[in-house]
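Milestone M4 deliverable, item 7.
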Amino acid sequence: MKHLPTALPAMNRRHFLGHLSSIASLAVPAMHFADRIQLHASQLRRSQRACILLWMGGGPSHIDTWDPKPESTNGGPFRPIATSGAMQISEHLPRMAKLMHLMSVIRSMSTREADHSRGRYKMHTGYTPSNTIQHPSLGSIVSHQMGTKVPGLSLPSFISVGGASEGPGFLGMTHAPFSISSNGQVSNLKPPSHIKPVRLRQRLEMLRIVENHFIQQKRGLAPTEHKAIYAQTLDLIGSAQTEAFNVNKETQTIRERYGENGFGRGCLLARRLVETGVSFVEVNLGGWDNHRDIFPVLKDQRLPELDQAMSALIEDLNQRGLLETTTLIWMGEFGRTPRINANAGRDHWPRSWSVVVGGGGLQGGQSIGKTDQDGIEVVGKAYEASDLFATLCHSLKIPSDIVYTSRTGRPVKITDNGQLIKPLLG
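Output delivered:
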């Protein structure tokens, strides 16, 4: 199949329908045709798999959230409460306690990376950091495997809200995270008002000529990726789907339910984006690196903010029929020490900690794995980042035996020999 001439980069489906509807003799049939296409695309988007990652930057304490130890001197002041699932969690997560039949806690996560940047890389890619290769993050893998298959989607398929995510590695910049604020603001999306349309078209034509010249000189993949990213940006500028970024379109009641703060707006935005067809959304909530005074920070800030927004997101996804096709993950780069330090805080602890998962056909209501009575060691089977990755890929219907080829020609598995966490599969 031949490609369309490069002189017609803007003649995509949406523009074609726009021209068609302007022809008077075909106006009514064209409108009906467009309506049918949009309805079909909307139905397909609703059945498309998606993933939302709630990233807790800094490393949250497992004992003070999902794995309380009230009988231990390590337990701290927070008391456990019963939930709708088969586990107890912190008393400062009361809204989530009512929804734990929809989510499961993996209490036996164990890794070796106690450094923030290395742990962040490990939990985003499933691989230990390497000097010879940059692995793609989960969001980039989902973008690569699923994002291009979503019909009628002009938005980027991997969006990071309220903070940066890990990059695409050897998959290339077309699958890099598209970062926006929790208010849905995108920097430099609209062209400057003083540039007239004819001048803009002339600049774009000149850019096209320069890009094609570089591509023809075979200077690597960067020129091709640059051209593709600009094409995506131009499509995004004129898309009505950017309305998904506008959380203020939601009622005051809904906005208040999520919480009038950055994380609350970010979770609401994630729901709107998934509903529109975005395949992967990461929402960032930092402030978990609690080396001192951990208990007032968690009680008065992090846990209420988390509890309100996360519970609203799960309820919303469930009520809208999206939870079955949307995989939800809550995690940070590691946990925190069971022992409380001299500054009334907890330090870095990758040896035993918790991750929360649900939706996407995964079994909810479970406590999978356990730590000992002091929260120090995993008792029985421990799960690694690669196991979590394999399970998430299974939930997203992405074959975990895929082997990529890096840009140096090296074969790289989509997961680092991870094994499925079978209790989550039912």
